[in-house]
Amino acid sequence: MQSQLEKAIETLKQGGLILYPTDTVWGIGCDATNANAVRKVYQLKQRDDSKALICLVNNYSMLERYVDNVPKIAYTILDIADQPTTVIYDAPAGIAENLVAEDNTLAIRIPDHEFCQKLIKYFGKPIVSTSANIAGQPTPKSFKEIGDAILKGVDYVVNLQSENKNAKPSTIIKLSNSGEVKIIRE
């Protein structure tokens, strides 16, 4: 796993795209603070850049560095969640502008996955995580279902195909600084 981490981190530092296992589905990732890298993700997925992408952080400390005001309820939701849960926060900071939604929000997840945790920790910054498919196509449930356009379109493929166990997208909850809680995807 160490050599996979090193190669993935080097690719991220160079503004490249990686294909990697997450706590949900296989993801296309990049440095979430690099607008050019984020643009490449949208181009590869042929996705409208008005549709937001998810960002991964490795712990509450990193979350608090990139969200101006984390609502207290977020910690409770994340602590009791029994499945991967992505939370949409108001007023992200220090993130590539083209990753922030039009309403000034950002979807963030703290993955419960050894490779992702180590990748984010050693990279030291959030990474983008979006399903490894062209927009509008079915989300691949396993590595072997990932299409050639995606495999050829990334700069590095993490070779840990047996690592992904969940194979379904995360629950998404939107929290506003006013205290409103809304379930976007179960």
Strand and helix layout:
Elements: H1 2-13, E1 18-20, E2 27-29, H2 35-45, E3 54-56, H3 60-66, H4 72-80, E4 85-90, E5 105-109, H5 114-123, E6 127-131, H6 148-153, E7 156-157, E8 171-175, E9 181-185
Parallel strand pairs: 1-7, 3-5, 4-8
Antiparallel strand pairs: 1-2, 2-6, 3-6, 4-5, 8-9
Which descriptors apply to this entry?
single chain, 186 residues, alpha/beta, DHBP synthase, nine-stranded mixed beta sheet, 6 helices, 9 strands, 30% helix, globular
Short description:
It holds the Pfam family Sua5_yciO_yrdC. The chain contains 6 helices and 9 strands, in the order αββαβααββαβαβββ.
CATH class: Alpha Beta
The best one-word shape is globular
Can you give the mean pLDDT?
92
Query: Unreliable segments (pLDDT under 50, ≥5 consecutive)?
Result: none
Count of domains:
1
End-to-end C-alpha gap? 32 Å
Structural class by SSE content = alpha/beta
Oligomer kind = single chain
Total beta strand runs: 9
Looking at the structure, the CATH topology is DHBP synthase
Strand arrangement within the widest β-sheet reads 7-1-2-6-3-5-4-8-9
Helix fraction? 25-40%
Helix/strand order, N-terminal first: HEEHEHHEEHEHEEE
Which radius of gyration do the C-alpha atoms yield?
Answer: 15 Å
- Biggest β-sheet description: 9 strands, mixed
CATH H-level name... which superfamily?
Answer: DHBP synthase
The fraction of residues assigned to DSSP E strands is 15-25%
CATH architecture term:
Alpha-Beta Complex
Note the total helix count: 6
